[in-house]
Every structure is written in C-alpha cells, then in structure tokens.
C-alpha cells in the first residue's frame, strides 16, 4: 500500500456522495489511503447517511481497510485500504438507501483486484430518487461494462421503494484481467420500449402510467411499446422508458410517491427520454457519462465518447480520479450542454 495520504475536500464540485464512492473505489484499486473532509457538505443533510455509511463499511470489508470516522452524520473520514478479497458478501443498508450506489462502489475493485468471482447481495432500495435504479443498472450500465470487458450479472429478488426499502439485488462479478478503452462517437438507430410496474398498488396505476408514457412519446413522433407489470412487495410504482440504440440502450425512469399522479410519474421518464432524443446524436447519456469515466481511466489504451450533457457529477468525478490516477482526462463542452470526454 502506498503511504501518501490523498487529501480531499468533500465540498468541491457537486459536493455529494459521488466524491465518497469514487474515492473508496479508487483507494481500493490504487492502494492509496485518503482523508475526506467536509463530507457531503453541499447536501441538506451533510455527512454520512445510511447508504453512504454502508458504502464505507462494504468497501472496508472487501478491502481489509482501516477506517476512522465511519458513523452516521460524520463529515470527516480516513480510509486506509488493504488487499481486496473476492468472496460472497451480503450488505444490508437498513433503509431504502440505494443498493445501486453501494454496488457501484464495489464492482470495479472486486473485478480488477479480487482475482476470482464474487457474489454480492445488497438489501435496501432498488428504485429510489437521485440514484440509478435496478433496471438502469441491468439495461444500460451493464451493457457499457461489457463493452469494456467486464462481465457482471444482476438479479432483483425483491423490489424496494422509499420509505420501506427491503429490496434485494444479487450481483455476480467476474474477474477482469484488464479493461479496454472505447471510442463511442454517435448513437445508432432508435426504437423505444418501456415498462410500467406497480408493487402493492392497484393495477389501474400501471395502466395510467403506461398510457401516458405512450401518448407522450407518440406526441414526440416516436412509437413506444410500454408493457404493464405487477411486482410483489411495495408499495411503489415505476415507469421506465428504454431508448434502444447503439452503443447501449439508455433507460430513463420516473417513480411514484404519495399524492403524485400516475401521469406525473410517466411524464418524469418521458421528459428525460425526449430531452435525450432532442440532443445531437451523442453516444452516451448524461447519467452514464460520469459512470464510465472511472473504469475507462483504468482501461488500456485511449478512449473517447460523446455525451448528451456535461454535468457537475461528471466534472467532479474527473477531478477525484485525477487525485488517484495519473491519466490525462479532458472533458470538452459547457456544463449543461453536449460534450466530449477524452482519456489519453
């Protein structure tokens, strides 16, 4: 392990949990310890919340790390990594905190440093706001990872919505001896499909969500086949729209909430999908743009990909990666506009 402590200010950039998650993954990958101050300083509840604390504890578990400051509300964290060990793990967030964000902390260290297959079971929220839902991970994120040479399978055993949580996702992560760079300059032909699901709620909600989503896409000039589903558990609802294209399908979703009309759930997903389709034919959606930059910073050879939108999440992630990895990473374009990411 390298002894040089990487000192990070959690209030810079987007000032949220992305700084923590990327730092944890990069620390395990590079062997560099870090000290993160002002953790999540720009959030309404600063410091470690349950899903962030679980990311820390999970990273420490798979990487034999020593940690100081790992408690709810802590804004100061020191993380000293050990060796990453493949294995069978189970992590229960204990709330509806996002299972996907914990997974995105762990998958790359286990794949590149574990040396053997791993199985990770995560308990918490599978479909919650401000985080990638299970279907995004399984449809969009996993497809991109396969292009890089990383094999990962996902299974949702049970859905989990806010505030109850209790969702269960199982990930099987194969070891990857190396990752390969990619060049992704424009998307291919487009078709749109979707799903409208309810759990523990009347089925007419799923029908209304599906009808509204199909109508919105038809207004835009694109036909969308939106199927209806009923899941166990809940209560909760979700509407997902998949823009099927190359290099990967892009999934956009809306979530139900108490007092929120079914039509508003559909509009939430449709607005995102239509905004993506209206941009110049960038290869990569805005959400995937910042999730790709970390593995590509560790891949062999250069990479280049066009993105639908330059986000603060992306710029912050690039800044964190540069603190751990000596790699030229350039993001061209104004924030809020289409752009290009180049990794030399």
How would you write the strand order of the largest sheet?
1-2-4-3
The best one-word shape is globular
* DSSP helix fraction: 25-40%
CATH topology of the largest domain: UDP-n-acetylglucosamine1-carboxyvinyl-transferase, Chain
Radius of gyration: 19 Å
- Superfamily (CATH H level) name of the largest domain: RNA 3'-terminal phosphate cyclase domain
CATH class of the largest domain: Alpha Beta
Secondary structure tally: strands = 16
Give the tally of structural domains: 4
Q: Could you state the oligomeric state of the chains shown?
A: single chain
Tell me what the CATH architecture of the largest domain is. Alpha-beta prism
Structural class: alpha/beta
Q: Tell me, rounded to a whole number, the average pLDDT.
A: 95
Number of helices: 8
User: Beta-sheet strand percentage?
Assistant: 25-35%
The main sheet comes to: 4 strands, mixed
**How do the helices and strands follow one another from N- to C-terminus?**
EHEHEEEHEHEEEEHEEEHHEHEE
CA-to-CA gap between the ends?
A: 26 Å
Report low-confidence residues grouped into runs of 5 or more.
none
Question: How would you portray this structure in words?
Answer:
- The structure is a single chain.
- By secondary structure, the protein is an alpha/beta fold.
- The protein folds into 4 domains: 1-83, Translation Initiation Factor IF3; 86-177, RNA 3'-terminal phosphate cyclase domain (UDP-n-acetylglucosamine1-carboxyvinyl-transferase, Chain, Alpha-beta prism), CATH 3.65.10.20; 191-274, Dihydrodipicolinate Reductase, domain 2; 282-344, no CATH class.
- 34% of the residues lie in helices and 26% in strands.
- It has 8 helices and 16 strands.
- The strands form 4 sheets. It has a 4-stranded mixed β-sheet with strand order 1-2-4-3, covered by helices on one side.
- It is globular, with a radius of gyration of 19 Å.
- The model has no long low-confidence stretch (mean pLDDT 95).
């Amino acid at each position: 392990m390298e002894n040089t402590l990487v000192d990070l200010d959690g209030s810079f950039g987007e000032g949220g949990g992305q700084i923590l998650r990327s730092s944890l993954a990069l620390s395990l990958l590079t062997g560099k310890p870090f000290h993160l101050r002002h953790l999540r300083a720009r959030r309404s509840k600063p410091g470690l919340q349950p899903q962030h604390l679980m990311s820390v504890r999970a990273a420490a578990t798979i990487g034999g790390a020593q940690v100081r400051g790992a408690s709810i509300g802590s804004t100061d964290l020191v993380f000293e990594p050990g060796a990453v060990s493949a294995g069978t793990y189970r992590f229960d967030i204990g709330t509806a905190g996002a299972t996907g964000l914990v997974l995105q902390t762990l998958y790359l260290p286990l794949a590149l440093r574990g040396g053997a297959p791993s199985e990770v079971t995560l308990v918490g929220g599978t479909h919650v706001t401000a985080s990638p839902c299970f279907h995004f991970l399984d449809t969009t994120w996993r497809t991109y990872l396969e292009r890089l040479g990383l094999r990962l399978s996902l299974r949702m055993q049970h859905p989990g919505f806010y505030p109850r949580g209790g969702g269960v996702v199982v990930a099987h992560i194969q070891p990857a001896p190396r990752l390969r760079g990619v060049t992704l300059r424009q998307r291919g032909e487009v078709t749109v499909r979707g799903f409208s699901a309810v759990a523990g709620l009347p089925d007419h909600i799923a029908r209304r969500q599906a009808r509204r989503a199909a109508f919105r896409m038809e207004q835009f000039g694109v036909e969308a086949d939106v199927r209806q589903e009923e899941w166990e558990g809940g209560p909760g609802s979700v509407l997902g729209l998949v823009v099927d294209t190359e290099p990967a399908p892009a999934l956009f979703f809306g979530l139900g909430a108490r007092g929120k009309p079914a039509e508003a759930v559909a509009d939430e997903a449709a607005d995102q999908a239509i905004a993506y389709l209206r941009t110049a034919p960038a290869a990569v959606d805005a959400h995937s743009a910042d999730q790709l930059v970390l593995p590509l910073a560790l891949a062999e050879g250069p990479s280049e990909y066009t993105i639908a939108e330059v986000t603060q999440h992306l710029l912050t992630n690039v800044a964190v990666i540069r603190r751990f990895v000596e790699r030229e990473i350039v993001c061209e374009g104004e924030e809020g506009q289409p752009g290009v990411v180049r990794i030399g």
